[in-house]
Design a protein that fits this description.
With 540 residues, this protein is of the alpha/beta class. The chain has 19 helices and eleven strands. The strands form three sheets. Strands 1-2-6-5-4-3-7 form a seven-stranded mixed barrel. Strands 8-9 form a two-stranded parallel ribbon. A two-stranded antiparallel sheet has the order 10-11. The radius of gyration is 29 Å and the shape is elongated.
Length: 540
Amino acid sequence: MRVPGILIWAALLIQKVVGEYGMAHISDEGKSKGKDYCIFFNSQWARLPQDLNKASRLQIYDLTTSVLCSPSDVPEGGFPNRIPMVMRGNCTFYEKVRLAQINGAKGLLIVSKDRLTPPAGNKTQYEEIDIPVALLSYSDLLDISKTFGKGRLVAMYAPNEPVLDYNMVIIFLMAVGTVAIGGYWAGSRDSKKRYMKHKRDDGAEKQDEETVDVTPIMICVFVVMCCSMLVLLYFFYDSLAIWVIAIFCVASSVGLHSCLWPFVRRLPFCKCRVPENNLPYLHKRPQIRMLLLSAFCIAVSVTWMVFRNEDQWAWVLQDALGIAFCLYMLKTVRLPTFKACTLLLSVLFVYDVFFVFITPFLTKSGESIMVEVAAGPSDSSTHEKLPMVLKVPRLNFSPLALCDRPFSLLGFGDILVPGLLVAYCHRFDILTQSSRIYFVACTIAYGIGLLITFVALALMQMGQPALLYLVPCTLLTSLTVALWRRELPQFWTGSGFVSAAEGSAVCEWHCRYSIWAPLHSTIKHLGVTEGPFFVFFFPL
């Protein structure tokens, strides 16, 4: 069934008007330095050279006061060896480019205030026209008018897009690292809590966050909320985007505090507490260093919120806050059985595929709801971008980096959902003394699934539902390991775990006699808990 589906997709893509991104290099006459602007062209009119040095530099004839829809719009003398720049009007692209070509133009730039669409025509029109025609955004026209004088030159070209950008390596390392560290931390923290409970000495853990066990009802409610929120964002993006940004700031502050507190509380200073008072949130007399850490985390989130549109560096803060949030969620939310893992991953698998591959047939624009919301609608009045993604700027010089998608994105759900399964595998490893085989296998499977996602993205050149590849890789790998070790009943139901007393012994053995044994004495001497400590020492 999959092969015909792929053929249908290919046929639909072939039937669509082929639009390609290119660059218009604008410069002043007599000056070599210029600036590139995004253009959208149809190679069926005329192809553009791939190298700027091979592109002809021609003078622009600014006719943006006209739409060039009739012969009366053509100035006296025409456009000999020039490229007219006109506004988009009610006539067809063919009528514009035909008038331009008849009057000596060597190309045509059409300025559009609307979304850039590929200039289309029929087969006969394509054969008749032999000059390139491209669309330029109105905002770029304003920048050109402000930056360059009247003697402007333009050279249009379209460099080849690389199969994969180097930023994919950074995203891969961040995603796999977050899943591995979060899963390891969650499992170690859970086993330590069991050990401390057995010893009846949980004073050191009183300030730690409690874990939340996910039930089937919670999974159903969560998926319904995800679907509802995604649809609402699609229709009311500008109204809801600012609320999502505010929620992200609060959640990421909490996540950053959760990740940093295990280390800050081991510092030998600022242990004094707030004096007795009746103030809200301060009546429990928290330590000064906790307040300082809270202020720092809030300051980082507020800094990102203020400068979130600074593309050169704000993405670093967003990724750091996003990773902290994901680690916090992996540590706090717990799937108690492999049955719950299978239910959650399977339902979200269907959810991801539906909103990426099926919704284009249901929307008027033919765009995927998931991709539109994640990247931000092009017709958004606020031009806000949702922060619930890891983003890394493209490192290659290409039209795609300049035009439509200057960043590569990976949603938090593509980290958290498989990460919860990795965390479950690690807890099962520790409590059954299975030498982390489930954890390592599931983490490697996640990395392989992410690589398959990148390959599919390069081959199909369209947004991919990452869970389509991550869910089968992680679920089937975990299931295979359980079958191979003949532990499927215990792994499926979460039953058959060792008792509390045995669990404490396992945890103590894990801390004292594992491969980390040489470090254990140092850790204990410093007073650092094993879970947070191994966050930075786990071999990725």
